[in-house]
């Protein structure tokens, strides 16, 4: 796979407003404007340096840097370990944001965040008078910090602790399962071991995640993804993106 042609795009947001190309280097993702991949901290869950992504002989990987809110891929929580594989069509959850890995972007982002005014400094986020309606709704819902109402959100997820029980191999098998490789024969093919070994791993995964079948695991991953989206106020959307841009333009640079 040619990862130089892979991109990160934000779900429900135009590619021309937020998209990043992935190359062979290791880069950080976070709310710090100095991060090569800048993430708007709309819901208060994105750390200054939240995660890193890079490329090795096995392929692209993503690493949560010990954050409070955590990181998930396709509903699989990956915090609490060093690296997790990342592939085309994966849905990444980071601090309330939903980001998709795609193979091409017809219209890359025209303006990089490093060129924008410093929107997400705390004093800018606290300017209630300049927040458009969509920002106000998220603030009232408790998902956007604002002034004295700024209280830590509860980023604990009902399924998050279960995934920490998995070994690195079991986590990778669960990630492949989340990508549609649900049968033991296919998993064995992906990892280069026999179907019997794949079945042993699947039984261990079922036991640790508290499920009993392929269908149960599929349901758990669906629920985990849904819970993550709810925790982020439903994810960012086009209207909220417009609000971010408007607020950026209203805050003096520096």
What does this structure look like?
With 254 residues, the protein is an alpha+beta fold. The chain has helices at 122-125, 133-140, 160-163, 168-178, 184-191, 195-209, 214-231, 238-250; strands at 6-10, 19-22, 27-30, 37-38, 51-56, 59-64, 71-73, 76-77, 84-85, 91-94, 97-102. The protein has a six-stranded antiparallel β-sheet with strand order 2-1-11-10-7-8. The chain has a five-stranded mixed β-sheet with strand order 4-3-5-6-9. The protein is globular. Mean pLDDT is 77; it is low at 115-152 and 247-254.
Outline the fold blueprint:
Layout: E1 6-10, E2 19-22, E3 27-30, E4 37-38, E5 51-56, E6 59-64, E7 71-73, E8 76-77, E9 84-85, E10 91-94, E11 97-102, H1 122-125, H2 133-140, H3 160-163, H4 168-178, H5 184-191, H6 195-209, H7 214-231, H8 238-250
Parallel strand pairs: 3-4
Antiparallel strand pairs: 1-2, 1-11, 3-5, 5-6, 6-9, 7-8, 7-10, 10-11
Helix pairs in contact: 4-6, 5-6
Instruction: Name the helix and strand elements from N-terminus to C-terminus, one letter apiece.
Output: EEEEEEEEEEEHHHHHHHH
Widest sheet: strand ordering: 2-1-11-10-7-8
CATH class, named Mainly Beta
- Poorly predicted regions: 115-152, 247-254
> What is the distance, rounded to the nearest whole angstrom, between the alpha carbons of the first and last residues?
40 Å
Summed over residues and divided by their number, the pLDDT gives a mean of 77
Query: Residue share in helices?
Result: 25-40%
Shape: globular
Q: The CATH topology is what?
A: Tumour Suppressor Smad4
Give the DSSP E fraction (strand runs of 2 or more residues). Answer: 15-25%
Radius of gyration based on Cα positions: 19 Å
Number of helical segments?
Answer: 8
The class by helix and strand makeup works out as alpha+beta
Tell me which CATH architecture applies here.
Answer: Sandwich
- Tally of separate domains: 1
Largest sheet features: 6 strands, antiparallel
Q: What is the count of β-strands?
A: 11
